[in-house]
Amino acid sequence: MAAQLLAVRCQNLTKTYDAGGQKVIALNQINLDIATGELMMLVGPSGCGKTTLISVIAGILDQDSGSCELFGENLQQLSSRDKLRFRAKNIGFVFQAFNLLPALTAVENVSVPLIINGMKRQAAEQKALSLLEQVGLGDRSKSMPSQLSGGQQQRVAIARALVHSPRLIVCDEPTSALDHKTGNTVMNLLKEVALQQDRALVIVTHDARIFEFADRIAEMDDGHIVSVQAQQRNQG
User: Fold this and answer.
1) What are 75's strand-pairing partners?
2) What number of other Cβ atoms are within 10 A of residue 87's Cβ?
3) Which of 62, 72, 146, 192 has the CA that lies 20 to 30 A from 25?
4) pTM attached to this predicted model
């Protein structure tokens, strides 16, 4: 059996913030590998560095030192334009605050990554509608974000992250606004779409209800990864 390729390789990552003249260490010598075909969850108390870590992995933040490679590419070595192109093609990000565009309908929000990558609007919206139907929002495709509940906005954000078939999907609390049944539906969709042999999924979560979906769970505290444990993924 061929060895699994690495989707993410973080080596000795550090990241600090200046908070009122005081240096706060958000990431402290982080080492983490994530294989293709893997669902990795990051857990730990608020403020321990989880969101900072996925922001560095996704190329949204630059680390102070160390390296982070995505599918063998070191994003810090790319120009701003090339980094933007790489992220647009290869990364889907589900933000905790959803970050939907308020002037666009649900289907238009979901189609944005496809249009950015050059797909014609009509084809992009057809594909976006198909994914909205998968997350149970086909009948709300023409609704504006302000007309949707928090849970519905969460599902639109997840559809948007998946629509362009990115190789890495990074999620910050993707089930936080969802009830248990809808959360399981979303996790099964994420697992089905994301966990192919050339893709990987990283989830920051406090939601113990979804731990069973993970392949491995990395626990963080005070900017460190304190343990990484294998988890038997739910097959249901």
Assistant:
1) none
2) 19
3) 72
4) 0.87
Tens-place pLDDT, residues 181-214: 888 888 888 887 666 778 899 999 999 999 999 9
Q: C-alpha angle 195/198/200, rounded to 5°? A: 45
What's the one-letter identity of residue 148? Answer: L
- Which sign does the torsion angle of CA 68, 207, 209, 90 carry? negative
3-class secondary structure, 60:
coil
* Whole-number Å distance between alpha carbons of 55 and 63: 10
pLDDT at 194: 63
Q: Which CATH number fits domain 6-99+166-230: 2.40.50.180, 3.90.550.10, 3.40.50.720, 3.40.50.300?
A: 3.40.50.300
Collapse the DSSP code of 130 into the 3-class scheme (helix H, G, I; strand E, B; otherwise coil) and give the result. Answer: helix
Asked if the model's pLDDT at residue 1 lies above 50, the reply is no
SS (H, E, C) 148-166: CCHHHHHHHHHHHHHCCCC
